[in-house]
Design goal:
The chain is α+β, with helices and mostly antiparallel strands. It is 40% helix and 20% strand.
């Protein structure tokens, strides 16, 4: 009985590792495609017991959003998605509280992504 329990726990752990690696691979592919489009801003919010949110935006030469990436969730099944509502907007027009009025985690991640790092 104990051996079976240890075996099941070991298999669950191996599945978690494999699915987590697959999620990271999917995110890296989407992020690499985003990096090809312009300057990037990335923001992350969430915590240990809250869903994590990662927002990345790509800006063109005129400081307009040319593409974006959003990944949100607590499990390894969260997939990267686009934020269609902000495509084409200027950096100054982006207001996280208007874009995500009911989601404080997305609002926080977007506001962090808007603070582009230079260097």
């Amino acid at each position: 009985m104990v051996t079976a329990l240890i075996t099941v726990a070991g298999l669950a752990w191996c599945c978690q590792l494999a699915l987590g690696g697959w999620q990271i691979h999917q995110f890296n592919r989407a992020f690499e495609a985003l990096c090809q489009k312009g300057r990037i801003g990335v923001g992350r919010s969430g915590g240990r017991f809250k869903p994590r949110v990662v927002v990345a935006i790509a800006l063109d030469d005129q400081n307009r959003v040319c593409d974006s990436l959003l990944i949100r969730g607590m499990t390894v099944f969260a997939r990267p998605a686009k934020i269609q509502a902000i495509n084409g907007l200027a950096l100054q027009e982006l207001q996280p509280d208007v874009i995500f009025p009911h989601d404080s985690l997305c609002r926080n991640a977007l506001s962090l992504a808007l603070k582009l790092k230079h260097g």
